[in-house]
Structure prediction request, 395 residues.
Amino acid sequence: MTASATGRPAVVIASRLFVPEVSAGAFRLGALARGLSDAGADVAVITTVPPPHAPATPDPTGVAVSRWPVLRDRGGNVRGYVQYASFDAPLVVRILFRRWRLAVAESPPTTGLVVAVVAALRRRPFAYYAADVWTDGVKSMGASGPVVAVMRWMERAVLRRAAVTLSISDEVTDRLVALGADRDRVVVVGNGIDTAVFSPDLTPAAYDRYFVYTGTMSEWQRPDIFVRAFAAIADEHPDVSLRFFGQGAVERDLRALAERLVPGRVTFGGVVSPADAASWIRGATAALVSIAPGIGYDFARPTKTYAAAACGTPVLFAGARSGRELVAEAQLGEAVGFDADEVAEAMRRLLAAAESGETDRRRPERARWALEHVSLAAVGQRAARAVLSALSRRP
Prediction:
């Protein structure tokens, strides 16, 4: 069947993450669903029951969302082979007997492989949303050779069978092609932030002086560098604090480090809603963003950068070249190497800029750049067009 009962193309999205879950992936998929609906498709999303800490928000208008329980880790994340399997195994039945003309699979490649197999059985095209390169990720985590080989096989199989693959950047595209994707079937749709939520017009959550880190705290970000740098300037600026919002695999180690180096000066606020995160970013001296270089994620451009820019708040980026170049070229703040001394010096410069009024003077131009270049609504529309192009393509 080529369309739903309404005559509109029926599109199903399979993803372990979806709004209202607080993550870049969930926001990206929410924007895609809205973009597909606006483009005239009947959209259904097969996803999971959100964790208890997710904000209570309605599903996107015009999108049918089917939720099923899934195993999560202690932080509430669907992260790990067992957790992935708890979503992928029921997905076989959930998608096999559903009416659809076109499917979209979000990473990990295990989910992509399930959708690829079902699409082949149904003789339907599917699109793959590749925001990350998972083979690089498992290698950077020190996975064993056999695990890396299996991940590479799955990711390559999905990329070769997808009618279209959505990439978030040219750097990601190059890695996907190296894994076996056909460059002619990869569409760069970019990445973005909801500029209706993240805005310079927000009321700051607090008016004291602080640096803020929001989102995932993982091994490939290694945000401990900010705690170490802050410890070097803490005595010089006794009124300044460091705030973390979010969660992740290294959060426990991060808390212990903060208590050892700068007791009482670093706070952890847990997972907060996008609106609350935006208010904290708006009031910050700078938003902290990091990518540890040399572990397989050098091509990443974290959404945290876009969120800060949309609020007009300076970014302090530490780490891999791609992220540094973005911040430097767009004049979004400070871009330094992955070195605690360099980060500390950047913190001093940012505090001085705030005291002089330069931060507020440049706030409108940062927000304008975000509105023009990284609007999530525009990304969703581009992604929707790319997905629907799969109806006329064959892998």
